[in-house]
UniProtKB/TrEMBL annotation, chain A:
GO terms for cellular component: sulfurtransferase complex. It holds the Pfam family DsrH. This is Sulfurtransferase complex subunit TusB. GO terms for biological process: tRNA wobble position uridine thiolation. It comes from Marimonas arenosa. Gene3D superfamilies: DsrEFH-like (3.40.1260.10). It comes from the Bacteria. InterPro entries: DsrEFH-like, Sulphur_relay_TusB/DsrH.
From TrEMBL, chain B:
This is Sulfurtransferase complex subunit TusD. It comes from Marimonas arenosa. The keyword Cytoplasm applies. GO terms for molecular function: sulfur carrier activity; sulfurtransferase activity. GO terms for biological process: tRNA wobble position uridine thiolation. PANTHER family: PROTEIN YCHN (PTHR34874), SULFURTRANSFERASE TUSD (PTHR34874:SF3).
Length: 102, 130
């Protein structure tokens, strides 16, 4: 029973990404959307925490929200992938439930 | 697959109503069904037809109204949240002794039972908020 977790706030404003990463079970998916996409970038104070979970969780960021912020999908934490809205829909369908970290 | 969508953030605040709109459009384009979207808390503010954003800017209410007309999505606004924020349909305006109503086409005011029902009748519930 896998869960898709969505995180929509920057990890530099709130603790939701860290809480989410620490609560998620192996095999769960995390999708960073809106300002949450900053959490997927390499070279930040949180990159190591995200990278440490990239093998056991399916961690993704929403491409449209990366582009809206001028962020480069080539500079994501290793193991984090960019998906579009099609991928968002697939993640919702493939997992058993969706949990929004608001 | 059937998706239910819950929106709990107002329009033009951050992006919840926009992200939800893009998600619903993509889900329908991929062959999924989105029978209902439930607007709760400040999300009810999407449903006023009196908002007048600049012409070169997206009109979030009109986007949802068009989507509902095209794909038969049931746009339900929580009555308790709506009354606190001055969102009224004809029925409620008359019941509360108000001189006007402002609910946009495609939206209807109902209760939390509709949210619960959506949770039961759909395969997934996706929340967009603040």
């Amino acid at each position: 029973m896998a869960t898709l977790h969505t995180v929509n706030k920057s990890p530099f404003m709130t603790q939701t990404l860290l809480s989410c990463i620490n609560h998620a079970k192996d095999g769960d998916a995390i999708l960073m959307i809106e300002d949450g996409v900053y959490g997927g970038m390499a070279g930040t104070g949180l990159s190591d925490a995200v990278a440490a979970k990239a093998a056991s969780l399916n961690i993704c960021v929403l491409t449209e929200d990366l582009e809206a912020r001028g962020l480069d999908a080539g500079r994501l934490v290793e193991g984090v992938s960019a998906v579009g809205y099609d991928g968002f829909v697939d993640l919702v369908a493939e997992t058993d439930r969706t949990q929004a970290w608001l | 697959m059937k998706f239910g969508v819950l929106i709990s953030e107002g329009p033009y605040t951050h992006e919840a109503a926009d992200t939800a709109y893009n998600f619903v459009k993509s889900a329908i384009a991929k062959g999924h069904e989105v029978p209902r979207v439930f607007f709760y808390h400040d999300g009810v503010n999407v449903s006023t037809r009196l908002s007048v954003p600049p012409q070169d800017e997206r009109n979030i209410q009109k986007q949802w109204t068009a989507l509902a007309a095209e794909h038969g999505v049931d746009l339900v606004v929580c009555i308790a949240a709506a009354q606190r924020r001055g969102i009224l349909d004809e029925n409620e305006a008359s019941r509360q002794g108000k001189d006007a109503n402002n609910i946009a086409e495609g939206f209807r005011i109902s209760g939390l039972g509709q949210l619960i029902e959506m949770g039961i009748q759909t395969d997934r519930l996706v929340t967009f908020g603040d």
